[in-house]
Amino acid sequence: MATPSNKNSKSHKRNRRGHIGLNVPNIMLDQTTGEYRVAHRVSPSGVYNGKQVIEKK
């Protein structure tokens, strides 16, 4: 079993993990409704790709 010979500093560890971070959601402005929504998702009003797919009660 491999064991480290020296302790890695905090900066060395954080530099190695620099690619691990928060993902920002892809928010876009819907052209038909004018609402902000996440890409490739149904808008809060039920419109997707310019068509009404969900009826609001």
From TrEMBL:
Signal sequence region: none
Task: Look up keyword rRNA-binding and say if it applies.
Answer: no
- Give the Pfam families listed for this entry: Ribosomal_L32p
Q: A GO BP term, please?
A: translation
Q: What UniProt keywords are attached to this protein's entry?
A: Ribonucleoprotein, Ribosomal protein
Segments of skewed composition (Basic residues): 9-19
| GO MF term list | structural constituent of ribosome
Q: Where is this region: Disordered?
A: 1-22
Q: Gene Ontology cellular component?
A: large ribosomal subunit
- Look up keyword Magnesium and say if it applies: no
Family matches, as NCBIfam families:
rpmF_bact
Query: HAMAP family this protein is in?
Result: Ribosomal_bL32 (MF_00340)
* Entry's family note: Belongs to the bacterial ribosomal protein bL32 family.
Q: What is this protein called?
A: Large ribosomal subunit protein bL32
Question: Which species does the entry assign this protein to?
Answer: Leuconostoc gasicomitatum
Q: What is the lineage of its organism?
A: Bacteria, Bacillati, Bacillota, Bacilli, Lactobacillales
**Gene encoding this chain?**
rpmF
